[in-house]
Write a structure and sequence with these properties.
The structure holds two protein chains of two kinds. Chain A is mainly alpha-helical. Chain A has helices spanning 4-10, 21-51, 53-56, 66-96, and strands at residues 60-61, 64-65, 99-100. Chain B is mainly alpha-helical. The chains are: A mainly alpha, B mainly alpha.
């Protein structure tokens, strides 16, 4: 992936200012969830739609080659799902750590 | 009077009246209401408003046509202009909302504890917004002149007055609720013709599914289009002409650019909470997706239908001149809409071989469709689908809604950048709220006047500079904001050097290959730098030491800039496409600029000293919501 700073964020271990363990745990869970979803984001668009489309095109979805379909429609559908999954999971994590978000 | 004209006038006047009514209802009384709609827009409505804000005249009118001609290569727009919302929702929007201020330069200035960084951000925001708004006003003018038979100038001015009215009166509040209405108008106007076209061509009423369905003859639509195109000498529709690396780079630049565009980001400041910013990004993409999943279908329908009905059809000079009716001429006759659009100049036909039929070919020698405007496919859809004349009026109102909603969002960025970031935060810090509001409204008026001028006398390179907006957003704002949230060690030096590097490298590449360094371009560039230098001098000479040279530098830059505008400097020719770096076109170079900006930022930050403790605490605050009973750094930012 061309986004070097994702690793910079995920790999960060600098000591926290006020190390409440709940805050650290919350942030770690957020980063893990984010990384997983971004990998999916990358795979459906850049992976299926561009780099690997020749392989996927051997299969068809309806009347469209699969790689082509991911590039024009499939990736958009997955993007929408990704955002709602993130919103729902984050709300659950915030409830778990009893965090009010205002 | 012609019924199409009547219906168009009816829809345009009704929708404009609606927008004005909403503006009067949603007047803004405080800076909070003016800049961020009082932070109380429900996520669903904000999603709709964001969709209208984001989808411009280009998405509505041109995108389907562009894809129709580009085939697979058109995917860069579909993925690029939607994938950015994932980045927004996961990486930027919730944190910027938690930060709780009004503008993007606000964040950059506070996070990087620097007036210089704030001013660089203001200049980027202004530059991006002005290049974009010029295109919107031009679109409004063209829609008016094509359909209401008024001069382009009148169209531009009428559109501008409407936007000005609700932006000045209602600020972000007025804009938000008009954008909700504009979304409804534009999506209805887009879907009605698409549904009928889908029924006609594939027999299914859902165009998004018709895309992968079968044509009326039972064969998959895409397969028969591929075959027909190859017979006529074109590239197959599902194959692209661009290299994989180029498609990759353009898609990435558009995605990251989308996430970094200030008029999109500020929409997420209007919801009540960070969690609402996440939900609202999801809704925004749902509403955008309805159009973006339909556009590739419209593209395929339009291209197939164009070839089926126009290619090899019998052209009649009598119909073209209005002496005969098309329906007298039997099965093979060129459809009526072809003549209608030929009159507007968007279509052109030259009978090269003199056989009285239209031959549509890839080869320029034998191709007789000598002019085929990409906007035609959306504009002509209602006629192609034999829909009643009110549908045409609706499509015009939809195109205007798309252009006006985007223009309003951009106007908001310009107005807040001037009044809040420049005047309040840099030049006149002791301004009262009332004065700030007044300046915001005046700035909006001035910005509209400039936009009117740009719409009436479009600079020749408007189309080229849209690549700028995305490239610059990708290479400047995105890295600075992202690192500001996810890397506490990121400091002032890294941000300033990173943003400037991204900006310059991307800018120079785009100008080199898109416009060429003419004396005028160099002059304008230097004048912008001179203004930037002057503002930096005025805003910082009291607080940050070692600045006297900025004034002299600004004067020197202005002097050379004026020489450039007068045409004294030498021209440097435009670069050839074969010289592209790794074959990456200027539209995609923002992704290279972004990687470079990230690298330079990180290296510079590591070589200079860490940001002060209170800034690191600020980062902690925006990352994590407050926990009950713990009010240390996690406390609310407002």
């Amino acid at each position: 992936m061309t986004d070097p700073s994702v690793d910079a964020g995920a790999g960060e271990t600098s000591p926290e200012v006020s190390p409440t363990s709940a805050r650290d745990a919350y942030w770690r869970e957020n980063l893990t969830l984010m990384s997983i979803l971004l990998v999916i984001w990358f795979v459906v668009s850049f992976g299926f739609g561009i780099l690997g489309r020749d392989i996927l095109d051997q299969v068809s979805i309806g009347g469209a080659p699969l790689g082509f379909w991911f590039a024009q429609q499939g990736s958009i559908i997955v993007f929408i799902i990704l955002i709602f999954v993130y919103a729902a999971r984050m709300s659950a994590i915030e409830r778990k750590y009893k965090m009010g978000d205002h | 009077m012609d019924p199409t004209l009547l219906w168009t006038a009816f829809f345009v006047i009704t929708t404009f009246g609606l927008y004005i009514g909403i503006a009067v209802w949603a007047r803004a009384g405080s800076t909070d209401e003016f800049y961020v709609a009082g932070h109380d827009v429900p996520p669903l409505f904000n999603g709709m408003a964001t969709a209208a804000d984001w989808m411009s005249a280009a998405s509505f009118l041109s995108m389907a046509g562009l894809i129709a001609f580009m085939g697979y290569d058109g995917s860069v727009f579909l993925m690029g202009w939607t994938g950015g919302y994932v980045l927004l929702a996961l990486l930027l929007a919730p944190y910027l909302r938690k930060f709780g201020k009004f503008t993007v330069p606000d964040f950059v200035g506070d996070r990087y504890y620097s007036q210089v960084a704030r001013i660089v951000a203001v200049i980027c925001a202004l530059f991006i917004s002005f290049t974009y708004i010029a295109g919107q006003m031009r679109g409004v003018g063209i829609a008016f002149s094509n359909f209401l038979q008024v001069p382009i100038e009148v169209g531009v001015i009428v559109g501008a007055i409407i936007v000005l009215f609700y932006a000045v009166l209602g600020g972000m509040r007025g804009i938000t609720y008009t954008q909700v209405a504009q979304y409804c108008v534009l999506i209805f106007a887009y879907m009605v013709p698409a549904i009928f076209l889908s029924l006609q061509i594939t027999g299914t009423p859902i165009p998004q599914l018709g895309f992968i369905g079968n044509a009326q003859d039972g064969l998959p639509l895409l397969q028969s289009l591929d075959r027909t195109l190859v017979e006529l000498g074109f590239q197959p529709y599902t194959e692209g002409a661009k290299s994989k690396l180029d498609v990759f780079a353009i898609t990435l630049a558009l995605m990251v650019g989308t996430a970094g565009l200030p008029h999109v980001i500020i929409r997420f400041f209007t919801v009540p909470k960070a969690s609402d910013a996440r939900k609202s990004a999801g809704w925004a993409l749902v509403f955008i997706g309805i159009l973006y999943l339909t556009a590739p279908a419209v593209a395929v329908f339009a291209r197939s239908n164009f070839i089926d009905t126009v290619n090899e059809s019998v052209y009649s000079a009598e119909v073209a001149s209005g002496e005969a009716q098309a329906r007298d001429l039997g099965e093979d006759a060129t459809p009526q809409w072809f003549y209608n659009w030929e009159r507007t100049g968007l279509l052109g036909f030259t009978d090269k071989n003199g056989d009285g039929r239209i031959q549509y070919r890839a080869d320029a020698e034998t191709n007789e469709v000598t002019k085929l405007d990409r906007d035609i496919f959306v504009l002509a859809n209602p006629e192609i689908g034999n829909l009643p004349s009110w549908v045409i009026g609706l499509v015009v109102a939809g195109g205007l809604a798309a252009a006006l909603s985007t223009a309003a969002g951009l106007l908001m960025v310009i107005s807040s950048a001037v009044s809040h970031d420049l005047c309040k935060k840099v030049l006149v810090p002791n301004m009262s709220e009332g004065q700030e509001l007044l300046v915001a409204r005046l700035a909006a008026v001035v910005a509209v006047l400039i936009a009117i001028l740009a719409g009436i006398y479009p600079p020749g390179f408007v189309a080229a500079v849209v690549a700028f907006a995305f490239g610059l957003a990708a290479a400047s704002f995105f890295p600075a904001i992202f690192l500001g949230i996810f890397w506490k060690r990121m400091n002032r030096e890294g941000a300033i050097v990173g943003m400037t590097t991204g900006l310059l490298v991307t800018g120079i590449y785009i100008v080199h290959f898109k416009i060429g360094f003419t004396s005028l371009v160099i002059g304008v560039g230097l004048l912008i730098l001179a203004v930037a230098g002057l503002i930096i001098h005025l805003g910082t000479h009291k607080k940050e030491a070692g600045q006297p040279f900025t004034l002299y530098a600004a004067i020197l830059l202005a002097f050379v800039g004026v020489m450039g505008v007068m045409g004294i400097l030498p021209d440097i020719a435009k670069g050839a496409a074969s010289d592209h770096f790794l074959g990456i076109s200027p539209e995609g170079f923002g992704s290279v600029g972004m990687v470079l900006s990230f690298a330079v930022s990180i290296v510079t930050a590591l070589m200079t000293k860490a940001p002060p403790q209170e800034v690191q605490d600020l980062v902690e605050t925006i990352r994590v919501p407050s926990i009950a009973g713990d009010d240390a750094p996690g406390a609310p930012a407002e």
